[in-house]
Amino acid sequence: MEIALAWLPRLLVAAALTIGLSAVVFTLSAVFGLLLSLVHYGREKSWLRNGIEAFSAFFRSVPELVVLFLFFFGGPQVGVDFGPIGSTIIAFALVGIAFDYQVFKGALKAVPFGQYEAGLALGLPKRIVFLRVLIPQVLPLARKGWITYAIGTVKRMSIASAVSVSEILYVTKQGIAATNAPFTFLTLAVGLYILIVTPLLVFNERKPKQVVAR
Amino acid sequence: MNILLEPTYQQMLLDGLVMTLFISVVVIVVSNLLALPLAIYMQRPKGAFRRVIIGYSFFARAAPVLALLFALYYGLPRLGIYLEPVPSALIGLIFASTAYNLEFLRSGFESIPSGQLDAAKALGLRPFATYWKVMIPQAYRLAAPSLFSNVIQMVKGSSLASLVAIDELTAASTVIISETYKAIEVLLVVSVFYLVIAAVIIALQYLYESRQSARRR
């Protein structure tokens, strides 16, 4: 018990880092995932879309740890040192964009294409059709998949311990090495993850409103 | 690229690939076999183990897989249980994956209209036949997209075993990188291996889904 109390401040700082990194990655993934899903909207054939699909397939198929190593070890090889935190943000954001792109693409398909055409026929600029017609409908539709992925982001942050980012699991590992009390530390760590994730889980269980205009 | 022509490194990557495939296949098969009876049990309105299963499922999905692997790797020896790294990692990965498969199957079962159970009963089908002939095929069809994407997640998850002393594909790449400093080349080759595995899984999914839709016609 005393061990746990002594290490608690460090674990809380680590938890703050986990939350901060997750928030940055979550925001980047959502913003760029959404933007990519709108690229060449409605076109039958598009080389740009094919490129985005290939990007998405790559980052959804390769383990996060390998992507992380690619930036952490690969960066210095070409003369760019991203550092542990930088590599973590870049790697997890790319994987997150690849996933969120699929989530938003699916949600966009649920909105009838006629709405886009109707908006243009009314003389609205494309930008306004996206901002005021499509996106307000896409966000609630995508919420479930999007938040589920965000919950995963918090947990996946633990993988960053492999490149010595001092998030929850890294400090936990240090604690285990220093005190030889694995269960105390892992119980605390998992408890912290559950505390962080539970609000998102509760939010995700709420029933979405009927959102698509017919 | 010439380091990859080095036979020792080729052998290391190949051994790593075999280990990755072994871990993935065991986790995929065992976690699916465990998830089905649990999902069927959860269809009962009452049951002594319902809460246990709900608690397990919540815990297994809320805790990071890596934390589970560490618990087994660092924790079990403290309890006087000494497992080899491979079985210990397998237990952790199966523990986590079963919970996801259970939830996908459970929501598959719950999406089947309840009238079908009544219809099966009215036709005089025994509970076993009801599940085997009516419920299970439909639950799998409904859950297939989630279950297949979870198969890819399990393959990706096997890379975490490299952090608990298992020489699979990702671990092999870090060893070669530490000897050659050619991180990009090695990691891209490893990525291609994972991409090919994912492509095979996606191809199997298309095959399954096209056979299913052919059968329904």
Describe the structure.
The complex is a heterodimer of chains A (214) and B (217). Chain A has 214 residues and is mainly alpha-helical. Chain A has one domain (2-205): MetI-like fold. Chain A has nine helices and no strands. Chain A has helices at 2-38, 47-61, 64-72, 74-77, 83-109, 113-121, 126-156, 168-179, 182-205. The model of chain A has no long low-confidence stretch (mean pLDDT 89). Chain B is mostly helical. In chain B, helix 3 (65-75) runs antiparallel to helix 4 (85-110), helix 5 (115-122) runs antiparallel to helix 6 and helix 6 runs antiparallel to helix 8.
Q: Quick gist of this model?
A:
The complex is a heterodimer of chains A (214) and B (217). With 214 residues, chain A is mainly α.
Q: Largest beta sheet of chain B, briefly?
A: none
CATH class of chain A: Mainly Alpha
Averaged pLDDT of chain B, please?
Answer: 91
For the record, give the distance between the C-alpha atoms at the N and C termini of chain A, rounded to a whole number: 59 Å
Strand percentage of chain A, roughly?
under 5%
CATH superfamily of chain A: MetI-like
Main β-sheet of chain A, in a few words?
Answer: none
Work out the count of structural domains of chain A.
1
H-E string of chain B: HHHHHHHH
CATH homologous superfamily of chain B - what is it?
MetI-like
Task: Provide a count of the helices of chain B.
Answer: 8
The residue fraction in helices of chain B comes out at over 70%
CATH topology of chain A: MetI-like fold
User: What global shape of chain B is seen?
Assistant: flat
Task: Give the second-level CATH assignment, the architecture of chain A.
Answer: Orthogonal Bundle
Biggest interface, chains and residues, is:
A-B, 38 and 38 residues
CATH architecture of chain B: Orthogonal Bundle
Question: What is the fold's blueprint, element by element?
Answer:
The complex is a heterodimer of chains A (214) and B (217).
Chain A: H1 2-38, H2 47-61, H3 64-72, H4 74-77, H5 83-109, H6 113-121, H7 126-156, H8 168-179, H9 182-205
Chain B: H1 7-41, H2 50-62, H3 65-75, H4 85-110, H5 115-122, H6 127-157, H7 169-180, H8 183-216
Helix pairs in contact in B: 1-4, 1-6, 1-7, 2-4, 3-4, 4-6, 5-6, 6-8, 7-8
